[in-house]
DNA sequence: CTGTATCCCTATAGATACTG
DNA sequence: CAGTATCTATAGGGATACAG
C-alpha cells in the first residue's frame, strides 16, 4: 500500500470517487432497507434532480451494485434494489459513517480554528 | 439513517466527498507510514500537480487530519504528518479498501456485461 | 524548497422542457 | 411513471510562470 501508483491504491481511489459523488451514498443508504421505485427515491431524496438520480442509478447498475427491474405495465413500473454486491458495500460504508458521526464535531472545530487563524493572519 | 436529508447522512456524504476527491486518499495513505515533506509527497505521488497537492494538504490541515510543521531554515522545510484524527480515519478507509480489492473483479465484470448489453441494444 | 497566481479547459450538476 | 434532451452555470483540475 506504500506506492500510490499501485493498482490497489488506484482501486480504492476509483471506488471512493464513485461512491463519493454527491448522490451515490444517499441512494445506497435509501435502498438499504428495501427496493424502491424511481419516484419513491425522488421523494425520499428531495434534493436530487431527475437527471442526477437517473445517472446515479445507471452507474450503480453498471457497477453491479443495484438491479433494475422493469415491469412493462401502464403506467410503467421500475424497481431498484441492492444486489448482493451492493449489500456487501453497506458494511464498510457503515464503518465510515460511524467514524464520520463520531468525529464530525472535532472536524468542525478544527475548521473553525483554521479559519479563525487565517482571518487573524489577514488582519495582521 | 432512513432520511437522507438528516444530518447524519449529510455528514457521511460530505465526508465522502472530501476524501473521495482525486488526491486525498492517496495523500492520507502515503502519510500513513510517517511524515513527509512537500516534495517527498510529490515524488511518491507522481501524477499530482503542485497546485492540487497544495490544495489537498490545505484541506486536510483545515479538517484537522494533517498537521503542517514549518522549519524556517534556508531552504525552508515543511513537514506534513497525520494527526490522531487523521490516523483514526485510516481504519475505516482500510475497511473500504478491503472491500474494493475483494470486489474490484466483480465490478469490472458487471461493467463489461452492462456495456456489452448496451452495445447489443444499439446494434439491434 | 515550498509554495501563489493566472489562464484555460473539461467534467459535473442544476433547470427546464419534452417523450414513450 | 420513468425517463431523455438541451442548455447553462459552476467547480475541479492541468500547465505555466512567478515569489519568498
Automatic annotation (TrEMBL), chains A, B:
Keywords: DNA-binding, Transcription, Transcription regulation
SUPFAM superfamilies (UniProt xref): Winged helix' DNA-binding domain
Domain HTH hxlR-type: 9-108
Pfam family, one: HxlR
Record's protein name: Helix-turn-helix transcriptional regulator
Organism the protein comes from: Sphingomonas alba
Amino acid at each position: 500500500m506504500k506506492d500510490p501508483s499501485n493498482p490497489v491504491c488506484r482501486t480504492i481511489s476509483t471506488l471512493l470517487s464513485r461512491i463519493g459523488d454527491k448522490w451515490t451514498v444517499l441512494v445506497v443508504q435509501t435502498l438499504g432497507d428495501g427496493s424502491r421505485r424511481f419516484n419513491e427515491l425522488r421523494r425520499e431524496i428531495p434534493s436530487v434532480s431527475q437527471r442526477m438520480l437517473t445517472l446515479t442509478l445507471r452507474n450503480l447498475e453498471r457497477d453491479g451494485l443495484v438491479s433494475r427491474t422493469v415491469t412493462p405495465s401502464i403506467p410503467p413500473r421500475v424497481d431498484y434494489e441492492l444486489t448482493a454486491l451492493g449489500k456487501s458495500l453497506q458494511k464498510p460504508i457503515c464503518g465510515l459513517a460511524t467514524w464520520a458521526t463520531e468525529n464530525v464535531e472535532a472536524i468542525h472545530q478544527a475548521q473553525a480554528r483554521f479559519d479563525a487563524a487565517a482571518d487573524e493572519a489577514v488582519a495582521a
